[in-house]
Amino acid sequence: MTIEESPSSSSVTPLPAEAFAELYARIDGVVTTPGDATWDAARQAWNLSADQQPEAVVAPRTAEDVQVVIGFAEANRLRVVAQSTGHLAAPLGDLSGSILLRTAALSGIDVDSDALTVRVGAGVLWGDVTAALAEHGLMALAGSSPDVGVAGYLLGGGLSWFARSRGLATSHVTAIEVVAGDGRMLRAAADEESELFWALRGGGGNYGVVTAITMRVFAVRDAYAGMLLFPLERADEVLTAWESWARDADEAATTSIRLLRLPPLPELPEFLRGQRFIGIDGAIAVAQGAGAAAERVAAAVATLAPLRELGPMIDSFELMPAGRLGEVHMDPPGPVPGVGDGANLDELPRAAIERILELAGPDADSPLLAVEIRQIGGALAVPAADGGAVDSMPGRFLLYAVGIAPTPEVAAMVKSATTAVLDATRDWHSGVDYINFRESQVAPERLYPAATLTRLRAAKKQYDPADRIRSAHPIL
Ligand SMILES: Cc1cc2nc3c(=O)[nH]c(=O)nc-3n(C[C@H](O)[C@H](O)[C@H](O)COP(=O)(O)OP(=O)(O)OC[C@H]3O[C@@H](n4cnc5c(N)ncnc54)[C@H](O)[C@@H]3O)c2cc1C
């Protein structure tokens, strides 16, 4: 079948449950279908706002299982969607006509402390990798949230607290094991299936179902990390000062600033519950080695000083073990219903700050939990040597707006608020955005430069000619 003839959701007649029973008999993993008692739990994404209604949910245990599922999908004109957590479930749509392949059982974390690499199964979460590496005095380029999946994060790029000194996490991937959309079980690396290796590193889940990933790790035990918290009433002053600091700050620092309206949730510490803040958090890399802590953090303390001089009400920056960096950003520890979206910004001039404050500052009546701006640039701006399809990140800032959306009505209200933030800053948008922060369906031209997109599409024809694999951000 060609890409033009690929199955669309409208052309698919639901398969009888017996067909999936036959699939179940052929694999080690678990198949769940709409009549099953566990159906709602099986189809549920991390983002509870996503109402995923696939034809079946399969939890494979092995790469061989994945191969069987892809063959079954081909025989029955279905598509396959891989998902480790469902953090990026929102742009996928309702998943009719697709088998949802949940990868949690593709586990395993193998640390090679001599080669300084780790091989992880595609269903592994960042928190588990970080903890396993910490036991060896090692660190990988994890993002802010421990319960984000390694696979989706790395296939999209991967922005860690070391991003401005070490670049995108995906540029440190050394091998990817995958069952391609055409059913072949492949290993992609610099010297094997090199075009697929290039495409997977940034091309998202468009090429197949990844079963394991190997990446470089670093002998980094700790960093100077934490949060500075100010009342939201000081948003203008603090955002203005941070923008001017962030533009020229040392590349050792990767930070984020957020205008926060926290819900009155019992799981939050009392002083945060229901309160409004502007917070700066992140990490500053420090010298590793045997020196005294005060000496090792001296440069980081100097880097942070201009922000500290603003006089935060809370200052938690300290020398922190790498294994605890997942606590810094206080991301939700489990599934939540959310609507969010983001865009890369070339600059954050006074006019942009004013527009953001109008929508989310202290005088705004905003339904948004957070309007966040991450500091990018530094090593992120430089294409990585031998990098993949996403080997750098445009712009100096990465904007992301998000709100909690427990009902469809609230979701619609939050959606219009996130759109308003993106629209208000449109004059400063970079040419392309970071795919992992785009949580709405966007044209692929917004995610990749033209030459990259042409090459990604050629690789798609080579490895998934029937467009069997459905991804959060399709490139066709
Ligand atoms: C609270 C929160 C914090 C975040 N923090 C950061 C951060 O600090 N830095 C950052 O860079 N990003 C961050 N993100 C964005 C995050 O990287 C993306 O949402 C990412 O896609 C999540 O990966 P996942 O595997 O958990 O999600 P999933 O929704 O499971 O996967 C996302 C997509 O990846 C593809 N995919 C997943 N697994 C496979 C597989 N085995 N084979 C093939 N394709 C696959 C699929 O297309 C899937 O739709 C954050 C998101 C949230 C919600």
Automatic annotation (TrEMBL):
UniProt xrefs under Gene3D superfamilies: 3.30.465.10, 3.40.462.20, Uridine Diphospho-n-acetylenolpyruvylglucosamine Reductase, domain 2 (3.30.43.10)
Presence of the UniProt keyword Oxidoreductase in the record: yes
InterPro entries, A to Z: FAD-bd_PCMH, FAD-bd_PCMH-like_sf, FAD-bd_PCMH_sub1, FAD-bd_PCMH_sub2, FAD-linked_Oxidoreductase, Oxid_FAD_bind_N, Oxy_OxRdtase_FAD_BS
Keyword annotations from UniProtKB, A to Z: FAD, Flavoprotein, Oxidoreductase
Residue ranges occupied by any FAD-binding PCMH-type domain in the UniProt entry: 50-220
Required cofactor names: FAD
GO MF annotation terms: FAD binding; oxidoreductase activity
RNA-binding is among the record's keywords: no
Highest taxon listed in the record's lineage: Bacteria
Record family assignment: Belongs to the oxygen-dependent FAD-linked oxidoreductase family.
The protein, known as: FAD/FMN-containing dehydrogenase
Biological source species: Microterricola viridarii
